[in-house]
Every structure is written in C-alpha cells, then in structure tokens.
Specification:
With 344 residues, the chain is of the alpha/beta class. It has one domain: Alpha-Beta Barrel (TIM Barrel), CATH 3.20.20. The chain contains 11 helices and 13 strands. The structure holds N-carbamoyl-L-aspartate and zinc ion. N-carbamoyl-L-aspartate is lined by residues 15, 41, 106-107, 136, 218-219, 247, 249, 263-264.
Length: 344
C-alpha cells in the first residue's frame, strides 16, 4: 500500500500552552488534526468556566486564518472545584472533560487533588451528566518507584474511584504499562485509554542507555520494552478502548536541558508520519483510522470529522530537528527510524 486516506484525526490529549509558545505550536497541530482535547495545566491552571472561555478565545485568535481546527476545552480539577460552575460549562458545550492531576504528579500540577474524598461530589455530578474525567494516572508517593507509579495508581486510586462512582466515564491518559492497557480493556463502556506517539516508539533504554537523553523524558516515564509492546498491541488491535492522545508537550530546549529538566515530548508535527510507520510495521495500517480518528469521537460522544487526510508513502520524509518559538527552540521528537509516510 502506498496511499492511505482516513477520516481526519483528532488529538485527545494536547498541551497548547499560551502566548508565544502557543502561537508557535498551534499550527503544528492544526495542520493535520481536526480537534484536540486541550490540557488545562497552564500557570495558573484553567479552573473555572471563565478561565476556559478566555483560554478558548486566545486559542481561536492564535489559530491560522484558514484553519478549521477546534479546541475542546477541559477544566483542571481542584479540591475546590464548584459543581455549579462545572455543570454550567458542560451544559453550554464549553468543556468536554475534567482533568484530574494527582497533586505534584507532573508539570504544573501543584493545584491538583491530594484528598480524593474531597472531589467525590464533583465526580458524582460528572457521572450524572456524562462528562468524562481525564486522569493522569500516577501516584506521587516518594516511596513508590517512578516506574511503578502507574500500576500502583490503578490499584490504590483509580479502581476505588470507579467502584465509588461506577457511572463515571474515565479516560486513562497516556498509559505506559501493560497493567494500564489490561485494566482499560477490562473496564467496559465507561473506561477508555489514550496512548501517545512516543510511548509506541521508545522504552526506558532510549532515555537512559548510552547517556541521558532529556528529549525522551516525559511523564509518565517510558517503561520496559514489554510494556511498549503491550501498548503497541493495544493501539493496533482495533479495540475501541484505545485512541490517540499525543500528549505533545512543548518545552524550550533551555528548560529541557537543565540539571532538573522539564518532562514532555513534542510530537505534534510528525505524529501522523510516525504512526503510519509504526502501524505499517505491525501490518495494521487498516487500524490506524480507528485509533487516530474514530474511537476518540465515539468515546467523547462526538461525530468523527467529516473530511479526510491522505498519507502517501515514498522516499523518507524529513522534519526539522526543532521549531523556533519566541520563547526559544523546541526540539521535535526523534523516532530514530526513517519515516516514509507524509500527509499530502
Ligand atoms: C506534560 C507537560 O509538560 O505539561 N508533560 C509530560 O511529560 N507529559 C504534563 C503531563 O501530561 O504529564
Ligand atoms: Zn499531558
């Protein structure tokens, strides 16, 4: 096969940032993707309906002129989130999900949830109105090994939440483990999982063997190869539980290449080329549309995009090593294998 036309994909987990950084990275997503679930971890975070409406306006004005890209807004769940505000924002279609960050789990998550009993009422209201909860699934306890934090979160936090509020619709975001993939698959219609581009490509050796590679450091951190293989199996299985959330998370090189560097891989630009290559290697090009374009809208109860994109296979396609922003350069994720598929 040398040409593949699929329904235009969406990105169900994206960091667009704000200001100059947003101006630089937004066109990279808008080029291929119809919609994206916009992460609310700005400084300060997007907590209220008013915050989300204002952030949405800033995105719409930074969007390239002829682009039909639609941002799907989320609110950042805190222990003080107001049910009334959240319900009003959902009713008018302003927000499509609420994001749960365990306090301290990742970039800009200090205002996240520490005591889960404090958000029980919010979660019950979300279950009533069918508003999904996007979950960053890692415990933050210092005594839990960073490579175990996702698996421990499922047992200690996620499963209890789902038992307490069984009707709550949950997206396990950027799963990185076999445990995550298995739990998502076993969870019935109210549970789904997103998988990033980079977690289909790298394991922890890419970060740590032969010198430390800060550009491969993201959260949740990539795990052993057996886990990457489980994610690959899940993404290419055709199972509607799994869909694409790139977690494209731009940080300037200056902020990545520090003694304490930021977590995040920037994949917005080359994701579709990488996915086509990865799915082709698995003999699963016929499953790419489901993963990137159909399973996500189905879970979010939206129509798939009406238009299509075409991927064409040919000589290796190259992407710039980094993009320039007014805040500094952002290095693009390097899959370390040639890419033959380009979006035409
Ligand atoms: C994200 C970021 O930089 O905002 N970083 C990351 O490594 N994925 C936060 C997140 O999604 O965990
Ligand atoms: Zn993220």
């Amino acid at each position: 096969m040398t040409s593949l036309t699929i329904t235009r994909p969406d990105d169900w987990h994206l960091h667009l940032r704000d200001g100059d950084m947003m101006k630089a990275v937004l066109p990279e997503t808008a080029r291929h993707f119809g919609r994206a679930i916009i992460m609310p971890n700005l400084i300060p975070p997007v907590i209220t309906a008013k915050d989300a409406a204002e952030y949405r306006d800033r995105i719409m004005s930074a969007k390239p002129d002829n682009s039909k890209f639609q941002p799907l807004m989320t609110l950042y769940l805190t222990e003080d989130t107001e049910v009334k505000d959240l319900r009003a924002a959902a009713e008018i279609g302003l927000i499509h999900a609420i994001k749960l960050y365990p306090a301290g789990a990742t970039t800009n998550s200090a205002s996240g949830v520490a005591d889960f009993s404090k958000v029980q009422r919010v979660l019950e209201n979300m279950a009533q109105i069918g508003l999904p909860l996007c979950v960053h699934g890692e415990v933050t306890d210092a005594d839990v090994d960073i490579f175990d934090r996702e698996a421990v979160f499922i047992d200690r936090v996620l499963d209890p939440i789902r038992r307490a509020v069984p009707e709550l619709r949950v997206i396990m975001e950027h799963i990185t483990t076999k445990q995550g993939a298995d739990y998502a698959r076993s969870g019935g219609d109210n549970l789904a999982a997103t998988i990033t581009t980079h977690h289909l490509v790298i394991n922890r050796n890419h970060i740590l063997a032969g010198g430390i590679k800060p550009h491969y450091y993201c959260l949740p951190v990539a795990k052993r190869e057996e886990h990457r293989l489980a994610l690959l199996e899940a993404a290419t299985s055709g199972d509607k539980t799994y869909f694409l959330g790139t977690d494209s998370a731009p940080h300037t090189d200056e902020n990545k290449l520090l003694p304490c560097g930021c977590a995040g891989c920037f994949t917005a630009t080359n994701t579709m080329s990488i996915l086509a290559e990865v799915f082709e290697k698995e003999n699963a090009l016929d499953k790419l549309e489901g993963f990137a374009s159909l399973h996500g809208p189905a879970f979010y109860r939206l129509e798939p995009n009406k238009d299509t994109i075409t991927l064409t296979k040919g000589d290796p396609v190259t992407y710039p090593d980094r993009i320039e922003t007014a805040q500094g350069d952002v290095t693009m994720f390097d899959p370390q294998f040639p890419l033959h598929w380009r979006v035409t």
